[in-house]
C-alpha cells in the first residue's frame, strides 16, 4: 500500500514540473505564431475571389 502513496506523490511532482514548464514557455512566447501573419497576406486574394464567385452564384440563382 505504501507503494501507491509513493507513486502518487511522484506523479504529482512530475505533473507540477510539467505544468511549470508549460507556464514558463507560454510566458516566454514559445507558442506565439510569428509565421502565419506574414503568409496570410499571400492567400487573402484567393479567399476574396472564392467569396465573390460564391456570392455571384447566389445572386444569379435568386434572380
Query: The biggest beta sheet, please?
Result: none
Shape verdict: elongated
Distance between the termini: 77 Å
**Rg calc:** 26 Å
Name the beta content range.
under 5%
SSE topology string:
HH
Residue windows where pLDDT falls under 50 for at least 5 positions: none
Number of strands: 0
Mean pLDDT: 81
Helix content: over 70%
Q: From the helix content, strand content and strand pairing, which structural class follows? A: mainly alpha
What is the assembly state of the chains in this entry? single chain
**Count of individual helical segments:** 2
- Whole-number count of domains: 2
Transmembrane segments: 6-26
InterPro entries: Cyt_oxidase_maturation_cbb3
Keywords: Membrane, Transmembrane, Transmembrane helix
Protein name: Cbb3-type cytochrome oxidase assembly protein CcoS
Tell me about this structure.
This is Cbb3-type cytochrome oxidase assembly protein CcoS. The chain crosses the membrane at residues 6-26. It holds the Pfam family FixS. InterPro entries: Cyt_oxidase_maturation_cbb3. Keywords: Membrane, Transmembrane, Transmembrane helix. This protein has 63 residues and is mainly α. It folds into 2 domains: 1-32; 34-63. Helix content is 84%, strand content 0%. It has 2 helices and no strands. The N and C termini lie far apart (77 Å).
Layout of strands and helices, then pairs:
Elements: H1 2-27, H2 36-62
Keywords:
transmembrane helix; transmembrane; mainly alpha; single chain; Cyt_oxidase_maturation_cbb3; Cbb3-type cytochrome oxidase assembly protein CcoS; 2 helices
